[in-house]
Design goal:
By secondary structure, this protein is mainly alpha-helical. The protein folds into two domains: 53 residues, no CATH class; 111 residues, Winged helix-like DNA-binding domain superfamily/Winged helix DNA-binding domain (Arc Repressor Mutant, subunit A), CATH 1.10.10. The protein is built from seven helices and three strands. Strands 1-3-2 form a three-stranded antiparallel sheet. The longest helix is centred in the first third of the chain and has 30 residues. The two termini are 25 Å apart. The N terminus and C terminus are likely disordered.
């Protein structure tokens, strides 16, 4: 504690308190443990839900995205998933074989392949999302109303950051405090 107070005393000219790099690193390491454990809990359950239909995580994430967008080109899918168009085509082919999506050619350009989610695919996304909402509600009941709002605020801020950046290319210099 003395070390932190001494550090803060030395950095008062900036007008706001800064955490020492060692403390930020320790907090980041603790958060990484928490995030991994939370993902493990949610992913284990999600795995049990997806296994009966043989839908992989990347396939499910694509279905969830298609459920929001309705129709996407193969190029847009490849970009969103961080794959080549050939890899995205294989991902879509497996979902098509499961009856989760359909492919068609664009009216204005027959070279352009459009992908659309089917009712069966939308039903899987809806069912998984309902389950996730139920699990999140259980967690939120554990938190006070102020903690619930703070959690939503922080996650919204992180989400906005991820939407403005390519999350696969994080580097320490990309992250700036606001």
């Amino acid at each position: 504690m003395r070390r932190i107070l001494a550090y803060l005393a030395l950095n008062t000219e900036t007008g706001f308190a800064q955490s020492p790099p060692d403390e930020i690193r320790a907090d980041a390491e603790r958060l990484s443990t928490i995030v991994l454990e939370m993902q493990r809990c949610f992913v284990l359950h999600l795995c049990k839900e997806l296994a009966p239909g043989n839908v992989s995580f990347p396939q499910f994430f694509l279905l969830a995205y298609l459920d929001q967008k309705e129709v996407l080109t193969m190029t847009a899918i490849a970009q969103k998933m961080g794959h080549t168009t050939a890899a995205a085509s294989g991902l879509v082919a497996r979902l098509e074989n499961l009856g989760m999506v359909v492919r068609s050619m664009a009216r204005d350009d027959r070279r352009k392949v459009m992908v659309c989610i089917t009712p069966k695919g939308s039903e899987l996304v809806r069912r998984i999302r309902q389950e996730m909402v139920g699990n999140l509600m259980k967690i939120m009941e554990y938190l006070s109303p102020d903690e619930q709002k703070a959690w939503l605020h922080i996650y919204s801020k992180i989400y906005d950051y991820c939407q403005s950046k390519d999350c696969r290319s994080f580097t320490g210099s990309d992250i700036k405090r606001r």
